[in-house]
Design brief:
- The protein is built from 13 helices and nine strands.
- By secondary structure, the chain is an alpha+beta fold.
- It starts with a helix and ends with a strand.
């Protein structure tokens, strides 16, 4: 139940334009904005102004609940894939990426809301109440143990339902303004969008992905020589059986000291980006499909690695991303005419 609630809170951070299923693409866009990406590394207090958008402040406390919810969600995902929590360095890297993305999303929301107000976009009380009721139903499904809806509101940084009503009104105004703009403006025809797509292709290009399995025999930095020799003999015994044709999954279950052994040694998919610099990823990138590595030493111990599947890099076709391109183009045009001041 906790996981479902975290996902719901996280998605609320993207309720204006971008659904949570589009998060990775949005992060790629954010990473192209150097100033916004740098702001991901800043440590803010709750009342800090993180950015001014056409003179209007966005405070850290307005986005902090969503950052924390997505962080916890990412840590849970990491633990499921790697059977351990990320290191402090990895946690910091994840937080920087998410914080930069959420700040950029807040800027987008603010710009669109300002334009909606400027164009006198209105929404009905009935639509606001309907949206709030839908949210209440989602919260009840996600966390049946919640005492009341106000408990949930506190988790997302809101005092009461009146404050939520204001946020929902803003959301609906932006949606209505966006639909109105895209429908009435000929700039969003295919003629313009195809040229824009060619400029933005990198965002829609997915790197090569490699399905990785391993057998790990753990060796600590403080291990005694006789212990190291014992572990090395163990990994060599596993290697000998594999070279004789033994099933990798079976040998992983028998020899590996990583929890992934229960899943045949599967530890996840590696995205090949061309900047791999540690021993393990360098080895993975060089392997052919179903090829075994030699014994590789890391800070965790001795590994035998296998790439059981290689998914080639590809770029999404124009028709698949056309609706998203319209939104990106709309947002770019708003940013070009805006005064955005990032605070550090």
């Amino acid at each position: 139940m906790k996981k479902k609630l975290l996902i719901l809170i996280a998605c609320l951070g993207f309720i204006i334009i971008v659904g949570c299923s589009k998060k990775n693409e949005q992060i790629k866009e954010t990473q192209q904005n150097t100033e916004a990406n740098n702001i991901g590394s800043v440590n803010y207090s709750s009342d800090s102004v993180v950015v001014k958008v056409n003179g209007e402040d966005i405070l850290y406390r307005d986005i902090e609940p969503f950052i924390n919810a997505i962080l916890e969600q990412e840590y849970m995902r990491w633990q499921m894939v790697y059977n351990s929590m990320p290191t402090d360095d990895v946690k910091n890297e994840i937080k920087q990426s998410i914080q930069a993305h959420i700040i950029e999303q807040a800027v987008i929301d603010k710009l669109l809301l300002q334009s909606a107000k400027k164009n006198n976009i209105e929404v009905s009380e009935a639509d606001i109440k309907s949206e709030i009721q839908m949210l209440k139903n989602q919260v009840q499904l996600a966390d049946t143990s919640a005492n009341n809806f106000n408990d949930f509101l506190k988790k997302i940084g809101l005092k009461d339902e009146k404050q939520l009503s204001e946020k929902v009104k803003d959301k609906l105004m932006v949606i209505k303004y966006t639909q109105w703009t895209l429908e009435k403006n000929p700039e969003y025809s295919d003629t313009y969008l195809i040229a824009y797509y060619e400029k933005q292709k990198a965002i829609f290009t997915h790197p090569e992905r490699r399905k990785v399995q391993h057998i790990l025999v753990a060796v600590g930095n403080d291990s005694k020589p006789e212990e190291v020799n014992k572990k090395l003999a163990k990994i060599k015994a596993a290697e000998k059986k594999l070279k004789a044709g033994a099933n990798f999954e079976k040998i992983a279950k028998e020899y590996s000291e990583c929890e992934s052994k229960t899943n045949g040694g599967f530890i996840g998919y590696l995205e090949v980006k061309g900047n791999e610099n540690d021993t393990i990823t360098k080895t993975i990138v060089k392997l052919k499909e179903n090829e075994l590595s030699e014994i590789v030493k890391s800070e965790r111990g001795y590994h035998i690695l296998k790439v059981s599947e290689i998914k080639p890099s590809y770029t999404d076709a124009f028709d698949k991303v056309k609706d998203r391109l319209k939104l990106m183009y709309l947002l770019d045009k708003h940013k070009q005419n805006a005064k955005i001041e990032y605070k550090s």
